[in-house]
Amino acid sequence: MSDPVSPRWRVARVDRTRVVLVPDLPDGVDPAERAASPEPGPDLPDGVDPAERAASPEPGPDLPDGVDPAERAASPEPGPTTPASPASGPAAPARRTVALRPGGVLGAVVGEPQAPAVGDRVVEAPTATDAERVLLAPRTSELVRDSADRSASFQVLAANVDVVLVVEHLDPEPKIGRLERLGTLAWNAGATPLAVLTKADLVTDATDWVADVEAALPGVTVLPVSATTGEGVDALRDLLEPGTTVVVVGPSGAGKSTLVNALAGAEVMATGERRGDGKGRHTTTHRELVPLPLPRGAAWLVDTPGLRTIGLVASEDSVASTFSDVAAIAERCRFGDCAHDGEPGCAVQAALADGSLPQRRYDSWQTQLREARYAARRNDARLAAQESAQWRRRTMQMREYLKVSGKGRH
Ligand SMILES: Nc1nc2c(ncn2[C@@H]2O[C@H](COP(=O)(O)OP(=O)(O)OP(=O)(O)O)[C@@H](O)[C@H]2O)c(=O)[nH]1
Ligand SMILES: [Mg+2]
Ligand SMILES: [Zn+2]
User: Which residues contact 34 (CB under 8 A, 6 or more apart)?
Assistant: First the structure.
């Protein structure tokens, strides 16, 4: 697959009126090797010619310059540090700021102009009149959540995501329900979730929590880490593939930015103190894409602000991925349409009764299913509304036409 236009950029940051772009990195991985890789993540069209890739220099740790001074002045809570560029090493590829079109959109290679998200791929498509013209490339995946303000149906947290690091602290105690929700969010994006339990240095033994989280997210790798002692950080880095995009999500104060810095081996994101009451204040206030140098190339990391509430916009299939164990039990119910609500021969009720299915997990499953069904209905309603708006427009256009042409008059 080749692009009609080149080269590629990635959206590193989105503001109201402009986006910051960084040059996309060649992933440095032989496609054959990637195909043989055990990681089942969705394969990204890399758009880089293998020959060209071989010739391209190893991308250095392109450190972002952090927060724009103007933005910082306007920001209610300025970050404590602006990471400095490394004194040595290859010159960082140019960052570029591009103004958004009215409505906060960019033109797209295919289809209507769209609001860009961090992680979007952007291609240069200069015209005679606009040498700066760039276009959004179609997304391979989207990490979405319910919009916070309900003004839109959902919010795109990041685009073109391969792996989601679902971060939860070991101290205070991890919230399993939150991990389950973020797991579903990740599956729904078509990405591979990886659970990271931070602050392992604050607990004597993380083994039981790891087992609990493994049970809550079947098939998901669970890693305890400590940015303080370095425990687990190399192991986590080893799980990440060059050329992929890895998004870090989790509650405020969980140590997401600290983890990003530990993985990157540099202070690329500002981190904050946790409040005495255990509630994190939001240190990171915007989503940002930063490069992650790996031994065989580089990947992209997206740090995000802590999510206060995580409204699910997910399909029932994504819920079934997180609850594959419960879904397997439900398949043994006598009736195919069993509501697990007292029907005879209900395997789910039986599992609850004998304790093999914890009530907490059952409740979580039911809650997520309800939300998935609600999201589907809402989406249907939204599509219906769009259709009726189109219909109204067409009717008006037809009336206008009849008026102008005089055909409507008797
Ligand atoms: N003891 C210990 N503290 C940690 C660890 N990781 C992070 N912290 C501390 O936790 C606090 C919050 O860390 P951040 O990295 O800013 O948390 P965050 O998840 O990015 O928070 P938001 O940006 O608000 O979403 C800081 O005081 C960190 O020093 C760890 O592994 N061990
Ligand atoms: Mg942060
Ligand atoms: Zn049942």
Answer: 27, 43, 241, 243
Candidate of 201, 247, 271 to mutate for ligand 1, largest count of ligand atoms within 8 Å of Cβ: 271
Q: Which atom of ligand 1 is nearest to the CA of 254?
A: 19
Q: Are 313 and 375 in contact (CB under 8 A)?
A: yes
Report the sign of the C-alpha dihedral through residues 254, 237, 229, 67, in that order: negative
CA of 285 to the centre of ligand 2 (A): 8
Asked whether 286 lines ligand 1 (CB < 6 A), one says: no
> Residue 394 — very low, low, confident or very high, per pLDDT cuts 50/70/90?
low
261 lines ligand 1 (CB under 6 A): no
pLDDT one-digit tens code per residue, 120-147: 999 998 889 988 889 999 999 999 887 6
CA dihedral 222, 225, 231, 233 (to 10 degrees): 80
Distance (Å, whole) CA 208 – CA 21: 43
For residue 203, the surrounding DSSP H or E stretch is none
Across 278-303, average pLDDT: 86
DSSP classification of residue 212? H
The protein residue with its alpha carbon nearest to ligand 1, atom 8, reads: 255
Residue whose tokens read 């950029």? 9
How many angstroms separate the CA atoms of 231 and 225, rounded? 5
Question: What's the rounded Cα separation, in Å, for the pair 378 and 376?
Answer: 5
Distance 286 CA to ligand 2 centre (A): 9
Dihedral (C-alpha) 299, 301, 302, 307: value to the nearest 10 degrees? 140
C-alpha 386/C-alpha 363 separation (Å) is: 34
Candidates 306, 405, 330, 323; CA nearest to 369 is 323
Percent of residues, the chain, with pLDDT higher than 70: 71
Q: Which residue has the higher pLDDT, 49 or 129?
A: 129
**Residues 378 and 153: beta-carbon distance below 8 Å:** yes
Backbone angles phi, psi at 102, to 5 degrees: -50, 140
Give the chain's domains with CATH numbers: 8-303 (3.40.50.300), 316-405 (1.10.40.50)
